[in-house]
Specification:
There is one protein chain. With 138 residues, the protein is of the alpha+beta class. The protein has a single domain, classed as Alpha-Beta Plaits (2-Layer Sandwich). The chain has seven helices and four strands, in the order βααβααβααβα. It has helices at 11-15, 19-28, 43-49, 59-66, 81-89, 102-106, 121-131, and strands spanning 2-9, 32-39, 71-79, 115-117. A four-stranded antiparallel beta sheet has the order 2-3-1-4, sandwiched between helices. The longest helix is centred in the C-terminal third of the chain and has 11 residues, at 121-131. It starts with a strand and ends in a 7-residue tail after the last helix. Bound molecules: adenosine-3',5'-cyclic-monophosphate.
């Protein structure tokens, strides 16, 4: 089933010059880039996006990091996009990520882990709608 997911190339990967290499991995993985935008986000915007993690000890550090520099927001499409992107990304902690995955290649740490991808259809719907308007997704 053709499905959409939401992804972010995080500030660590943009800063280290890996945006193009990560986009190449995504395209090689068979994803169509439906919409893409490089921008900086505010701490408040990061807090709204990660609201589900508000009670976690790492929330302040995570949202400070995500608002520390430019990132790349994307909507991606392919058959089984949500699960397939998470497979391509590798484990959240790069220390546990499989060889060949984006996080194994480009992530620095659990927080500076290069890329985000939605974890379920409901999350993807929220995350796509949080950053993109309908007219950007035609
Ligand atoms: P992401 O997929 O963007 O979703 C939430 C993020 O929180 C996650 O990637 C990690 O970068 C970060 N994260 C998860 N667990 C921890 C943790 N224990 N300490 C710091 N950051 C974390």
């Amino acid at each position: 089933m053709i499905q959409r997911t939401f992804s972010i190339i995080k500030p660590d990967a943009v800063k280290s010059g890996n945006t193009g290499a990560i986009l190449a991995e995504i395209e090689k993985g068979g994803f169509k880039i439906v919409s893409i935008r490089k921008q900086s986000i505010s701490k408040k915007e990061a807090e709204g996006f990660y609201a589900v993690h508000a009670a976690k000890g790492f929330f302040d550090s995570l949202t400070t990091f995500m608002s520390s520099g430019p990132l790349v927001l994307m909507v991606l499409e392919k058959d089984n996009a949500i699960a397939d992107l998470r497979k391509l990304m590798g484990a959240t902690n790069p220390a546990n990520a499989e060889e060949g995955t984006i996080r194994k290649k480009f992530a620095e740490s659990l927080e500076h882990n290069a890329i985000h991808g939605s974890d379920a259809p409901e999350t993807a719907a929220f995350e796509i709608g949080y950053w993109f308007a309908g007219y950007e997704l035609i």
